[in-house]
Every structure is written in C-alpha cells, then in structure tokens.
Specification:
The chain is mainly α. The protein is built from 5 helices and 2 strands. The chain has a two-stranded antiparallel ribbon with strand order 1-2.
Length: about 110
Amino acid sequence: MKLNTSRLFILILPLFLPCAVIGQETEAPATDSGAVSAAEETERIGYFVSRDTDGDGKLTLEEFMAGQPETEDAEALRSRFTFWDVDKDGFLSRSEYVFKGKPVGQ
C-alpha cells in the first residue's frame, strides 16, 4: 500500500490545531487600545455639545469640570483636562475632548 502524504497531512492536521489555538489564548488581551469607537465618538460629541454652555466650540476648564460626576477627584480632572489639551491653549477643542487628546484614529 502506497502512503499518500497529502491525505496523511489532512488526517493529522486537526490534532495540532488545538495546540495552536491554546497557545494564542495565553497571550494577554489588549484591554484599551486608546481608540475611540464610532459609538463612543457619537456619545462624546453629545457630551461635548451639552458641556459647551457658551457655544463657542471649545470647553473651558470650568465647563469641563461642571459636567463631571461629583465622585470624580477634582485634581485628577484638572490633570485630565491638561493632558487632553494637546495644543496647550487652555481649552479643549471638540477633537481634543472626543479623542481624549490623542490624534484621530489612534
């Protein structure tokens, strides 16, 4: 009887697939890529518009702070505002707020 190697490969391949899958599962999952999903972007635009009380298209620190839950630490909020204020003009543009100070698409 002649052994057909391609058939043998097809027969033993399923035996090795679970090992490959198990090996992939041991890698740590990415918890936060920093990317903003389309749904989150829409939600954050709504938050921005509601917090921009003077309608000038940017948030002051006061506007930013006023919309936050009372449980948030004020110093942490100021730090977040400063971090998101990429151009350091003292305001958060819609893009800076929506994308949390990161370049769009990252």
